[in-house]
């Protein structure tokens, strides 16, 4: 198995986008109304028996302790209390929270809400590399089925925020690197690179080995070239 260590220094230069306009638009997006569930996180002191008794007394089922938290329990509304009105009504939520907190052994109380997760995709620049559309690891638009839909490094949102990795040194152990490639040569560090197969300082790949070169491209490729 081919094995080489090569070092890359990140000196990416990203064309500036209208970052101010992007964040202004993000801040002006209306906040989505919270959608509450029938699950509650409740801090109960006194052990599992006390948690069970309190849950039953207030129309909940104690689903057990939450992870490694010693006194936090997952309370779930019983079927008789679990309807849309009780879950979403602010009055009902406040009432149930107040009655739970009235228990001497109860501290923290929070009804759990749904969280909407979305891929924050935004094209920050007009990419000038004619092969940009083929670089699926950083710009995956060709796969249309889950779980690979839009699966990539999601680097562009970081670029928008000004993160370039400038000055970061990255070490990669792989099957070699085509370090003379125009995409890589300016960011390749020969001083610390080594070929463990031939015991020399040139980790160029052998034959059809290309995985290390591809990984290096994802880390330090030059932008907007052919």
Give a short overview.
With 226 residues, the protein is of the alpha+beta class. It folds into two domains: 4-25 and 125-220, no CATH class; 36-113, Alpha-Beta Plaits (2-Layer Sandwich). The protein contains six helices and seven strands; from the N terminus they run βαβαββααβαββα.
Helix and strand topology:
Layout: E1 4-9, H1 19-27, E2 36-44, H2 48-57, E3 60-65, E4 72-77, H3 84-88, H4 90-101, E5 106-113, H5 156-160, E6 169-174, E7 188-195, H6 211-220
Q: Overview of this structure, please?
A:
Helices cover 23% and strands 22% of the residues. Strand 3 (60-65) and strand 4 form a beta hairpin. It has helices at residues 19-27, 48-57, 84-88, 90-101, 156-160, 211-220; strands at 4-9, 36-44, 60-65, 72-77, 106-113, 169-174, 188-195. The chain is an alpha+beta fold and 226 residues long. It has a four-stranded antiparallel sheet with strand order 3-4-2-5, with helices on one face. It folds into two domains: 4-25 and 125-220, no CATH class; 36-113, Alpha-Beta Plaits (2-Layer Sandwich), CATH 3.30.70.
